[in-house]
Each structure stands twice: as C-alpha cells, then as structure tokens.
Amino acid sequence: MFGVVVILYKEGIPECVLLMQSIEELAARYPATKFVKIISTDCIPNYPDRNLPTLLVYNNGAVKGNYVGLHSFGRRCTPEGVALVLCQSDPVLNDGQRGNEQSREAVIEGVRKRFIEKVVLDHEEQEDDSTSD
C-alpha cells in the first residue's frame, strides 16, 4: 500500500506557506508516505490561484481525497490537523514500521492522540494567557 500526498502551490501565497510547513513536518514523521509539491500551473495549466493550496491524496494509484484551500484543515492548519484529515478518506500516512493493518491502525491512533494533545495544550495556553492579563 503506497500513499502519495501531492500539494499544488505557488510561491508567495501565505496559505501555501502555512500548509507546506505542516506537510514538511508530516513528511519527516511518515517516511513511507510519499509527499510531493508541484507548482500548480506546472501541473494544471491555468489552475486558479484561489484554489491554492490544493492537496491531492492517492493510495495505490487511485485518488482518495482532494482538498482545496485551508478550510478542511482547521483554523490553524497544524500538522496534527492535516494528519487527521489525511486519515479520514483512506489513510495514506505510513510510518514505515510494518506494512500490515495493525501498523495502519497504530498510525491512525497516533494521529488522533497527537491531535487531541495539541488541542488540549492550545486550550491550556489560551487559559494561561487570559489569566495573566
């Protein structure tokens, strides 16, 4: 099972920079998943900038997800939020440890756990900020 995540982007678009940061962190965390970035108009002539960034998700050669813009990934577009979305349609994240169903479930559970930890940490930081005013 081979997962590929393609990001269509253009330089100078802040939303692309934000998503690219999350994708780079996920690429380091999931080395068996292939992450590819392509300048949108090099791939699709006249692709509208308003659709950027766009993530295309493939698994075993078939399209499993298509995410246009940042709204799919939550307000802050964190690596945890992006990973959670990538695990929804057909999980493509692979840690390279084992290629079986048990490994896949472990990856999904790890993504969920990191997402929850990030949300709790962000919430605690917001509370600390509001009490220190």
TrEMBL record:
Q: Which Gene3D superfamilies does the protein's record reference?
A: Glutaredoxin
Q: Which GO terms describe its cellular component?
A: cytoplasm
* One example of a Gene Ontology biological process annotation: protein folding
**Superkingdom of this protein's organism:** Eukaryota
Q: Please name the Pfam families in this protein's record.
A: Phosducin (PF02114)
Q: Where is the Phosducin domain?
A: 4-69
InterPro entries referenced in this protein's UniProt entry, alphabetically: Phosducin-like_chap/apop_reg (IPR051498), Phosducin_thioredoxin-like_dom (IPR024253), Thioredoxin-like_sf (IPR036249)
User: What family does this chain come from, according to its entry?
Assistant: Belongs to the phosducin family.
PANTHER family in the record:
VIRAL IAP-ASSOCIATED FACTOR HOMOLOG (PTHR45809)
* Entry protein name: Phosducin domain-containing protein
